[in-house]
Every structure is written in structure tokens, then in C-alpha cells.
Amino acid sequence: MSKSILVTGGTKGIGKAIIQRFAQEGFDIFTCSRHQKDLEELTASIKKDFPTIKLYSKVADLSQKEEVNALAAAVKEKFVPDVLVNNAGVFLPGAIHEEPEGNFELMMQTNLYSAYYLTREFTGAMIERKSGHIFSMGSIAGLTAYANGGSYAISKWAMLGMTKCLRQELLPYGIKVTSVMPGATLTASWEGVDIPEERFMKASDVAESVWGAYNLSPQSVVEEIVIRPQLGDL
Ligand SMILES: NC(=O)c1ccc[n+]([C@@H]2O[C@H](COP(=O)([O-])OP(=O)(O)OC[C@H]3O[C@@H](n4cnc5c(N)ncnc54)[C@H](OP(=O)(O)O)[C@@H]3O)[C@@H](O)[C@H]2O)c1
């Protein structure tokens, strides 16, 4: 039976690169985003490049708890994922003392709460099966404080905390838990910024490290992936 992966926010950037990398390895895939058209385009491109891969998708706004739950229900009709990648996230730069009202709630709901709710939907079945690998997309903004990190940094710091707790909770059940903390990666999140392309990491490099961390023997787990542009943070 083929293995399966659920990647949230798979139509762009890092999520899309992870989908492409795991498609290469023969995984069945489930993903989501807020835009049907982008999901259709992703489906067509995966079908073209990997004709035997099954890709399922659902429109979901993960900032809404009911939509996270609806996504989980749709996934369960297909499979309990071997790999869950809590990737969807939004980045609105700002400083805590002056960022617009609502930024905090939006980023906590999208970046953190969605991962909490979705993970809880699958841990029961993973524990029963005694296998699974949960990746959570943090950021170097959740490791090092910098001005203009604002609520984004808070959400990513919390993501790291949640992932560390999960790691301890799930270790007796053969379930691996990994925090992924990339630095600047060239994706839609950086659209319009006037910085040379070579200064960023490629999303495919982040995807490769996720694959590498997944592809170990059962007795080892990569707890944290910290990956930065060769020339350092932006
Ligand atoms: N790029 C970087 O430099 C960088 C660095 C460190 C960490 N990260 C983290 O890596 C993850 C992916 O980032 P990225 O740069 O690849 O982002 P991206 O290119 O903007 O793509 C984000 C993906 O998430 C989806 N998404 C966003 N909000 C959503 C919502 N409310 N509900 C459902 N899907 C949603 C987007 O689709 P729709 O917009 O159509 O919904 C898209 O598929 C994020 O958690 C981000 O914080 C990125």
C-alpha cells in the first residue's frame, strides 16, 4: 500500500515543494488552500509530472476552526496520513507595539491554532497504528527575536513550543515529531521585495531536508531542522 502525506497550504512555496518531493517518492497526497483555482492547477501539474500519484485537495481557510475540522474529515475519508506537514501560514511583518489590530489573531489562528487542531485530529489514529511523522513549519523568526517580527514571531515561537511538547508526548508510540525552521526562502511570501534571488533559499532545499528527516530508520528522529541562506538571515 502506498504511503500518504497531508500538507497544508500546498499550492505555493514550501508546501508545494514538499508535495513535489514526496510525489517523487510515490506518496498519495492531500492538500488544501483557500483558492480552488490554485488547487486545480496543482492537481494538473502533479498529474502531468507524476501520473500515478493520487492527489486529493479541499478548499479550506485554516484560520477557521470549523474549516480545519472539515478538512480533517475529508482527509479521513481517504487515509490517515503517514506524514502530516503543518505548513500553511501567513506572514504579515509588523512590530507588536504598532502592528494593525487583528494581525495577532489572524497569525495565531492561521499559523498555530490550525496546526494544533489538525494534529489532534490524527494523533489518536497514529498512536493506535504506532507510526507517523508530524512536521510543523516554524521559522527562524521563532528562534531569534528581530524588530518587525511582531505577531508572526510570536506564532512561530509558540509553534516551536507546541512541537517540542508533542515530541515528548508521542515518543513512546513510535511517532516522530520534527520542527522545521527555515530562514528566508523565495516564495510568494516575499513578493515585491527588492532583494536578489540568490540571497534566498530555494523552497526545494527545505523540501529536501524534510524528505531527508523523514527518510531515517525508526530508531532516529530529527527533532529540529534549522536551515538558513548561506549568507545568513535577511
Ligand atoms: N518563505 C519564507 O521565507 C519562510 C521562512 C520561514 C518559515 N516559513 C513558513 O513556511 C510556511 C510556508 O511559507 P511559504 O513562504 O511557502 O508561503 P506561501 O508561498 O505564501 O504559501 C502559503 C501556502 O499556504 C496557504 N495558506 C495561507 N493561508 C491559508 C489559510 N488561511 N488557509 C489555508 N491555506 C492557507 C496558501 O494558499 P492560499 O493563499 O491560496 O490559501 C499557500 O498554499 C509558512 O508557515 C511560513 O510561515 C516561510
Write the layout of secondary structure elements.
Blueprint: E1 4-8, H1 13-24, E2 28-33, H2 36-49, E3 55-59, H3 65-76, E4 83-86, H4 103-129, E5 132-137, H5 150-170, E6 175-182, H6 203-214, E7 224-227
Parallel strand pairs: 1-2, 1-4, 2-3, 4-5, 5-6, 6-7
Helix pairs in contact: 1-6, 3-4, 4-5
Residues 9-15, 32-35, 38, 60-63, 87-91, 110-111, 137, 139, 182, 184-185, 187-189 line the site of NADP nicotinamide-adenine-dinucleotide phosphate (NAP).
Class by SSE composition? alpha/beta
As a whole number of angstroms, the C-alpha radius of gyration is 17 Å
Ligands (ions, cofactors included): NADP nicotinamide-adenine-dinucleotide phosphate
Instruction: Let me know the number of strands.
Output: 7
Report the span from N to C terminus.
43 Å
The H/E string reads EHEHEHEHEHEHE
CATH architectural category: 3-Layer(aba) Sandwich
Biggest sheet strand order reads 3-2-1-4-5-6-7
Shape label: globular
Uncertain segments: none
Helix content: 40-55%
Q: How would you name the CATH homologous superfamily? A: NAD(P)-binding Rossmann-like Domain
Secondary structure tally, helices? 6
Question: In words, what does this structure look like?
Answer:
This protein has 234 residues and is an alpha/beta fold. It has a single domain (4-227), classed as Rossmann fold, CATH 3.40.50. Helices cover 42% and strands 16% of the residues. The protein has helices at residues 13-24, 36-49, 65-76, 103-129, 150-170, 203-214, and strands at residues 4-8, 28-33, 55-59, 83-86, 132-137, 175-182, 224-227. It has a seven-stranded parallel beta sheet, sandwiched between helices. Helix 1 packs across helix 6 (203-214) and helix 3 (65-76) runs parallel beside helix 4 (103-129). It is globular. It starts with a strand and ends in a 7-residue tail after the last strand. The mean pLDDT is 97.
